[in-house]
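Student:
Attend to each token:
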Amino acid sequence: MRNILLLFTTLLFSTTLFSQIFEPIKWKSSVEEESENVYVLQFEATLDKGWHIYSQKEVETDDIAPTATEFTFYNEEKKYELIGETTEPEGIQKYDKVFEMEIKYFEEKVLFTQKIKRLDPSLETVKAEVFFGICDDERCLAPDVVEFNLSLSGQTTDTKTETRNTENSSEVSSIVASTNTIEGTEEQKGLWATFILAFLSGFAALLTPCVFPMIPMTVSFFTKQSKTRATGIRNAVFYGIFIIVIYVGLGSVVTAIFGADALNALSTNVWFNLIFFVLLIVFGLSFLGAFEIMLPNSWANKVDRQADKGGFLGIFFMALALAIVSFSCTGPIVGTLLVQAASQGGMAPIIGMLGFSLAIALPFALFAMFPGWLNSLPKSGGWLNTVKVFLGFLEIAFAFKFLSNVDLVLQLELLQREVFLAIWIAVFGTLALYLLGKIKLPHDSPTEHISVGRLSIALLTLAFTIYLIPGLWGAPLKIVSGFPPPQTYSESPRGFGGTTNAGVSTSELPEGAKYGEHDIISFTDYEKGLAYAKKVNKPVLIDFTGYACVNCRKMEEYVWSKPSVLKTLKNDVVLISLYVDYKKELPKSEQYVSETTGKKIKTVGNKWSDFQITRYKANAQPYYVLVNKSEENLAKPIGYTPDENEYLKWLKDGIANFAKK
């Protein structure tokens, strides 16, 4: 009996020690009928202690970020419609030093809900799926997908998830009631930044040919129509208020149509970014004078007739007339602001329009109150068109940020860092030449000389252009950090013809390799890396990692960076980094169903995750394996190892075993 117990204990210990397949999350789904043809779909995740999943709110960034939870509802036949967005609890928010951003995540239990309206009485089942990443304090698992089949009749048809009855409706209600996210400090800062940016944009719009000349015209109208000074001041104040009401109303409409959080969800969507790239290019070309974007003249005429009626209603229609008539100049700026606000979501469109309209309204109201100030205004002239052209160049430059987002998400490698910087150098270089009077555009007035102010801005623009040029050779360009793609997303991490910190020319990189963290030569394709290791007769370090893996970044930042570890990684092994959350789809011919998990392998990340599970019986990251040329283990694989000495010993032991064989 004692021997049996000893054997059982040994087997149990061995299983616990060597099995690395984690299943720390369980999903349950249910349906609750709220009213006739209106249903609440509920998705509850139960997590093991210490594990967490991330919010649906994705972060717009060029760098790594946590894997956001994402729900997909299949509705090809349009038998139902979604009501609002998928809600989630308040969760836990904190600043993450590794990602260098505010993150939101959930522990223990989390309930997501989605309201739908049934349009077709024949609809019985709703098919949905959730894509999510899950981590604990030491590891992350490869992003996974769980499918749901939710029966609207109350009968469970879900075969791939556990289902959940709706007996505890009070529990559900209490969780749903807490789904309103409390604005944190960072969100408030973001709204202040949106307001200030919009306010400055409003002043820029004020200095355009469509708006600036209307100031004296409007002031003249109030001066002549008002019988007393008090009446004139009152009318001017209401005129300013109505301008604010009109633009804030526009922001409110945008928020109401898309929902407070939908705009933020769209901000990382490929089509959203692509559409707004095109829109900003169109806006920019319009400002340069290629064409004018105008609302129908009939709208302005109808509004003008209403303005003639006088009274508060007439003042309102005067403000509306200003918005319509000046649209060819303000429209592109308003559109750009709404795009910027969309990347933040929530109340940002309303706050943005408040800042913009306040900057427009203040001068009109103040000059109407104090007409004598008009004498201090500069005269209208060609400088107004110069302001408009300047804004057009900025629109075109910022447009490529949206195109860069598309390229980064799809990993197309078409708009890498060098290409992006080359475009910006061309745009701002051309702007500098324009400001210096070397280039003329369609609506420019003839000038014999340029002003000191214009020359000063030209010199600043030229200096900025020159500042960008070293970025082609690997300069960090901290002033524009966040706009160009990261340095790791480039044709060569050190720029054209550059060299690494170790003095190795980028032209000497093996086929299929790139410079990764700390200039370590790494492969992202297993076969190419293995072939190179055989060629140079070195052991292989397989690094199962992820773009959204927190502890992978900690290992790279705090352990790999140590001189002794870094020297070993650069000189004694061939590094193959396999990203299990890489979303690029495999060619159809290479997609397959895993014999181990039964899941369809559709992406590059799926492929490497399945490779890790099948060969090494592990699914957590980071996970490090040292193998020889015959793919035999040189040491027991390890996971997150924050102790640099322990990690270095593991490397050295494996390398020593390689030398013996």
